[in-house]
Amino acid sequence: MKFFILSQGAQTFALTRISMMKITLVSITVTIALLLEVHADVLPQKNFDLKRFAGRWYRVGLAYNSPGFARHRNKLTICMGVVEPKENGDVMMTVWKTKSSICQKEVYRYEKTAVPGVFTYFSTRHSRVKDITVVETNYSEFAVIYKHRKFNREFSQVSLYSRSQKLRPEVIEKFKKYATQHGFPEESIVIPPPADNCPLARH
């Protein structure tokens, strides 16, 4: 049997590598813990029912923590979307929104996850996968949707959906409170007006 004796320099190098590995593992563990802590309270609607969630919705409120959002907030209007469940549990979301004074139609495919009420979709605009969570809904009146993505840093949106363009003031205040409790400043929260130049959004 042969024994190898490391020189003092080799021993120092080996100990340094081990120390660096330990630091890296600790850093990874801390990072994961922080991420879990940040999103631990973003939970989906209990016993989420996709069939009941299907149909027409209006986005009547939005909170967005992107730095460039504030200068565009006054351009936002209420937009309309239709949720169409697929047999495999995915969702086709058709949205009509106003862009540059033109009513445009966009179609998204939300892919189901192992957790009911949580979906993902690939944003062609940002070339990133986004997470979408139906945080709360009573199906017949309102829904709160949390959207999250990573792009250089983490960005999040909270949207308030309604079955009609008018929603009870107490529900709107509840939405604003939820947004501020999750770190969205007041200037990032918008309750937009109807889209007068987008007829589909008025039906």
From TrEMBL:
<feature type="domain" description="Lipocalin/cytosolic fatty-acid binding">
    <location>
        <begin position="54"/>
        <end position="194"/>
    </location>
</feature>
<dbReference type="InterPro" id="IPR000566">
    <property type="entry name" value="Lipocln_cytosolic_FA-bd_dom"/>
</dbReference>
<protein>
    <submittedName>
        <fullName>Prostaglandin D2 synthase a</fullName>
    </submittedName>
</protein>
<dbReference type="GO" id="GO:0036094">
    <property type="term" value="F:small molecule binding"/>
</dbReference>
<dbReference type="InterPro" id="IPR022272">
    <property type="entry name" value="Lipocalin_CS"/>
</dbReference>
<comment type="similarity">
    <text>Belongs to the calycin superfamily. Lipocalin family.</text>
</comment>
<dbReference type="InterPro" id="IPR012674">
    <property type="entry name" value="Calycin"/>
</dbReference>
<dbReference type="InterPro" id="IPR002345">
    <property type="entry name" value="Lipocalin"/>
</dbReference>
<dbReference type="Pfam" id="PF00061">
    <property type="entry name" value="Lipocalin"/>
</dbReference>
